[in-house]
Amino acid sequence: MGLTVVSGGGHTWRLTEQIGSGSEGFVYGVDDARPLVAKLVPDPPGPEAYRRRVARLVRQRREPRTVGLLSGTPVRLAWPLVSVRTADGTDADRVDGYVMTDMRHAYQPFSHLLSTSARRTFLSRATWATALRAALALARLLDELHAEGYVVGDLKPDNLWVDETGRVGMADIDSWQFTDGREVFPGRMRTPGYTAPERIGAPAGTPPDSASDDFALAVLVHQLLMAGLHPFAGHPADGGDYVSYDDNVLHGRCRIVDRTSVLLPRSVPPADLLPRRLAELFRTAFAYPRRRATAAEWARALAAELAPGRLKVCAVNARHLHTVERPWCPWCDQAERGTDSYPGQLQEEA
Predict the structure, then answer these.
(1) Residue 338 gets which letter from DSSP?
(2) 8 Å CB contact between 301 and 278
(3) How confident is the model at residue 347 (pLDDT cuts 50, 70, 90)?
(4) Per-residue CA distances from 285 to 257, 282, 313 (Å)
């Protein structure tokens, strides 16, 4: 494609194929021996402010609060490593961005764990235990970010990565809300279906906070444990038209809060597959915003469900794992209604 980017120190990289795009920018492969990609943002809301934001994130990579977040293998965060600009054209034509770790080196897109067909193709050994482990890893990572003063603000599947063991990674760090000294870099993005009710309809520029992240976390954990089902999915049971997830959020249409509020296909996973403690956290997260569980509380509850003796293997299908609180297999119940979220047999131990 011929694009070249250059850092402030004069190092150049040749970009290869475009591998992704989002609401703000484009991600390209980088011709380098290391697993790297580059994100370019053609029209940020304030080019100078965006350059300063990325420069501060690059600098924070070496600060104590961030060093711990970036430790371990595989790396959990696609943190900006160096600011870059496209090398060609006039100064006004050049596009800003940054180079970061290529998460494809160690992970699959998070959405692969939420789709039966993608899960079977790309994460063929995944079970409900994998979903529990991914939910726990995500809750722990978010808790660590909040403890260090970062707010994701736009937590959603498109920004997340997962591997076959349930480890989780996160990208699009440049949209986070954070402080650097006395300067606040506000969160800029929000996504329908993952926006807390208090932020829906709020004026543009209304900053997120850790509580709005906690709402998005609850949505994602629900999707993980319910084989991709969004907690606010479903047509209004009162006969009205389905508008959007956000419309259901604002009107309290949520099966786990009120089973009579929405109509869903019979093939979705049964609501009672959830352990009691997790079901209660979902109800408070979606019905009582002021009592919404934090990421730390989610992490403790999810860890408890992964404790020895808390999971049971179905006698019919070895890929059907479920909580011991349920006397029979919820996935077999689902399969009898037309869809099996975890079809087939494991060849080895899960």
Answers:
(1) T
(2) yes
(3) very low
(4) 10, 5, 29
